[in-house]
Each structure stands twice: as structure tokens, then as C-alpha cells.
Amino acid sequence: SVNATPLTIERGDNKTSHKPLYLKHVCQPGRNTIQITVTACCCSHLFVLQLVHRPSVRSVLQGLIKKRLLPAEHCITKIKRNFSSGTIPGTPGPNGEDGVEQTAIKVSLKCPITFRRIQLPARGHDCRHIQRMGPALPSLCPHLARSKTALLEGLEVDQYMLGILIYIQK
């Protein structure tokens, strides 16, 4: 029981393990009491209590802006470097293989994952594409192999694109 609320642990499919108990709905701020009572044979049991902190999306985004905001000048330099190296799809390589120099590229203001308008432009630090995604879903990069995950620690917020989004909203 937790705080005098009885709970039953469900057995797993193989009868040797049990399904986890989620205690959030019976816990309260401050001190909580967990009492474990075993009715069957008590040969060997292992009990694990994990405390998990799940910050809100809003607090994660605020932290991302505070810690991972890439200055506009740096963003522009990165875009120019990727254009000249040919790492942006549809642009010529460093030797100008197709003979045509591309000086502009169209970038969508919709997140390629959620298909909603981007509020906070972010992308993986190692990504070479210009397109940004909304960081509310740190998920698979839609431009790379589907196995490439954009982890929260590797996301950066593009101040240059953020300035454009703020200007457009006015």
C-alpha cells in the first residue's frame, strides 16, 4: 500500500516477473509511506523504487533557448559553409560539378515531423540541412536515415530563423 491506499502488483506473462507499479496517482507532496506485504512464499524478492523527474515541454524549451541558442551570425556562416561544400541537397559540390551556382533555397516554415508551423526553430547539431524542425518532438531527423535520432542534448536553436519567424508574425 502507498499512503494507506491498497495496491496489487500484477504478475508478468512468464509468472516470474511483475509489471511495474506507477505510484504517481497515490503519492502526495512531502513524505509518503510505502508498505510492502507479501501473502505468498517470500523466498527471494527484489524491490526497486525509481524517482523520475519529467519536466514539462515548456521548461525543456526554455532551457533549450537558454543553453543552445546559436547566434544568427553563426547560423548564417553554417548555411554558407554547407552551400559551398555541396552538403545541402540540390546544391553543387565544392568543384561546381553541375556548372550552376545555387544562391538561394526555399525553406518551409512547417515542421517536417509534425506538419505544424514552427514556433522554435531547432535541428540537430550535426545535421547539414537548412530545414529546421520544432523541438517539441525530439525525434527522428526526417532528412537523414530514419535511424538517426535528434537527441535533446544535440539540438540547437537557430537564432537567424527565429528572427525571421518573429518578423513574419508581426
TrEMBL record:
Presence of the UniProt keyword Hydrolase in the record: no
Alphabetical list of Gene3D superfamilies matching this protein: Zinc/RING finger domain, C3HC4 (zinc finger)
PROSITE patterns in alphabetical order: ZF_SP_RING (PS51044)
Segments forming domain SP-RING-type: 96-170
One biological process term in Gene Ontology: regulation of transcription by RNA polymerase II
GO MF term set: SUMO ligase activity; transcription coregulator activity; zinc ion binding
Pfam families: GBD-like_ZMIZ1_ZMIZ2, zf-MIZ
Top-level division of the source organism's lineage: Eukaryota
Entry-linked InterPro entries: ZMIZ1/ZMIZ2_GBD-like, Znf_MIZ, Znf_RING/FYVE/PHD
GO cellular component, one term: chromatin
Keywords: Metal-binding, Zinc, Zinc-finger
PANTHER family referenced in this protein's UniProt entry, alphabetically: ZINC FINGER MIZ DOMAIN-CONTAINING PROTEIN (PTHR10782), ZINC FINGER MIZ DOMAIN-CONTAINING PROTEIN 2 (PTHR10782:SF38)
Name assigned to this protein: ZMIZ2 protein
Organism: Xiphorhynchus elegans
Phylogenetic lineage: Eukaryota, Metazoa, Chordata, Craniata, Vertebrata
Gene (name only): Zmiz2
